[in-house]
Amino acid sequence: MSALRFPLPEASTRLKEWLKYNDVVLGSQSLGRRKVLDMSGSRYIATMDPDIDEKAFRKDSPEETCVAVACGKADVLERQLKGLDVVLLCGDQVAVCEDELREKPEGSEEARRFIKDYAQGKGVITWTAIVVVDCLNGTRAVGCHKAITWFNPIREHFIDAIVADPHSLVYRCAGSFCIDDVMGPFVRKIEGGSDSVMGLPLGMLEELLLGKIRPFL
């Protein structure tokens, strides 16, 4: 069972036009970010894997942590793309529930614990950081966006099935939850947008690209 109960927003006409005339490299292996771009009709020319140790970037707050990780990814890839006429797009996301910072689960037991909290109605906050870099001149812009997701009750046997699948997206997502895979049908409410929960808030992306990197006249 899988569904996206809260459809992704369409990218604005201005953002689509901007992406048509500017080459964007997605510095991320996130399936969610690629899905947001693909489903919203947004163009990018390539993906790259920054391959960094994300745990080395811990800061005092969730917002600062995800910004630091996203900037760390951008630092690595910008060195490889420096001087090219491309815009680099990197991102990171952390989840917070009950004041606990939650990254990707380390195993099935941690994933189970996280999901049980959501099944009991506890909201999960996602902080998503986006960094865009004009590799031609080094101009950089950074933004951070907050969203909150609540789930309906999830029965124990569904949780068992979710964590039993080693290929489930819950093992690849911060906080061990997703809204477009097996947990999708259980989503009750989202504040902040499904695009933000999936790792790429399109409104903020448009502000960064068109407002701070390469204004689109």
Describe the structure.
This protein has helices at residues 13-21, 31-39, 62-81, 108-119, 156-164, 194-197, 202-213; strands at 24-26, 46-47, 87-97, 100-102, 124-134, 140-151, 187-191. With 217 residues, the chain is an alpha/beta fold. It has one domain (13-213): Maf protein. Strands 1, 2, 3, 4, 5, 6 and 7 form a 7-stranded mixed β-sheet that branches. The termini are far apart. The mean pLDDT is 92. Pfam families: Maf (PF02545). This is Maf protein, putative. GO terms for molecular function: nucleoside triphosphate diphosphatase activity.
Short note summarizing the structure:
By secondary structure, the chain is α/β, with parallel strands linked by helices. It contains 7 helices and 7 strands, in the order αβαβαββαββαβαα. The chain starts with 12 loop residues before the first helix and ends with a helix.
Name a few traits of the molecule:
217 residues, Maf protein, seven-stranded mixed beta sheet, 7 strands, nucleoside triphosphate diphosphatase activity, Maf protein, putative, Maf-like
**What is the CATH topology assignment?**
Maf protein
How far apart are the termini? Answer: 45 Å
Helix content: 25-40%
Give average pLDDT, whole number: 92
How many structural units, i.e. domains? 1
Principal-axis shape:
globular
The value of Rg in angstroms is: 17 Å
Report the major sheet.
7 strands, mixed
- Gross CATH architecture: Alpha-Beta Complex
> What multimeric state do the chains show?
single chain
Question: What is the number of strand segments?
Answer: 7
